[in-house]
């Protein structure tokens, strides 16, 4: 990969300030607990950074709920733990108000809307599955299959402990490609809840077609959606309004999440 290490590191170091508050109806103590503030990495997943949040609030819920799985909510939306934190913010927060106000729950887990996550091992399994899916799109799964177990652990532990060099020492292998053609296909998911009832859109897009470098605009055209029907729109990833002329190969190499997918959100500033 034509690696721009400064871009990779800036994306890795993206952070969001979050204010966690226990749901009012679940407070069992005479005085409600103080909110809990955290600065969290955009690229990680909530179960990897909320152990302290759980310990702070669990003492204030009724005893028979203390062993329940904790879940998070923003403005009536249960937050899917298997979505990266930065993606969740880009999906749901349109006014950029910070810190991000999130409600903590220990009761009435909405398992019809979000998956269960009893341990960090489940997050690791999810990450490895996503990496294999992305590698199948990019390299027919050749790279993940050839990587040793210690490489897989480097990926996981690098994300778990927020270690850029450890993660990228293994991830750079997944970003390699031969010649000028780039990846076979670009791993991406497109989130456009204003235009479709599907949780996300995903289809095959090559980085180069007919000797032309494909761009974000080309990717959108293949969706067969009228993106301009609701007014001017932005394509957001990592909080960045990405120009539509950005080449897909470059953005895939530099702005993918640790699962190796581009998670692209359609945002309408006027809505």
TrEMBL record:
Q: Which GO terms describe its molecular function?
A: Atg8-family ligase activity
Q: Where is the Autophagy protein ATG5 alpha-helical bundle region domain?
A: 121-176
State the Gene3D superfamilies in the record: 3.10.20.620, Autophagy protein Apg5, helix rich domain (1.10.246.190), Phosphatidylinositol 3-kinase Catalytic Subunit, Chain A, domain 1 (3.10.20.90)
Compartment(s): Cytoplasm; Preautophagosomal structure membrane
Main location as per UniProt? cytoplasm
InterPro entries hit by this protein: Atg5, ATG5_HBR, Atg5_HR, ATG5_UblA, Atg5_UblA_dom_sf, ATG5_UblB
Some GO term, biological process aspect, for this entry: which one? Answer: autophagy of mitochondrion
Q: Name one Pfam family in it.
A: ATG5_HBR
User: Domain Autophagy protein ATG5 UblA, which positions?
Assistant: 11-106
Domain Autophagy protein ATG5 UblB: start-end pairs: 185-266
How does it associate, per the subunit comment?
A: Forms a conjugate with ATG12. Part of the minor complex composed of 4 sets of ATG12-ATG5 and ATG16L1 (400 kDa); this complex interacts with ATG3 leading to disruption of ATG7 interaction and promotion of ATG8-like proteins lipidation. Forms an 800-kDa complex composed of ATG12-ATG5 and ATG16L2. The ATG12-ATG5 conjugate interacts with RAB33A; this interaction is bridged by ATG16L1 and promotes ATG12-ATG5-ATG16L1 complex recruitment to phagophores. Interacts with TECPR1; the interaction is direct and does not take place when ATG16L1 is associated with the ATG5-ATG12 conjugate. Conjugated with ATG12.
Family named by the database record: Belongs to the ATG5 family.
Function, in words: Involved in autophagic vesicle formation. May play an important role in the apoptotic process, possibly within the modified cytoskeleton. Its expression is a relatively late event in the apoptotic process, occurring downstream of caspase activity. Plays a crucial role in IFN-gamma-induced autophagic cell death by interacting with FADD.
Protein's UniProt name: Autophagy protein 5
Species this chain originates from? Scapholeberis mucronata
Gene name as annotated: EOG090X0BB3
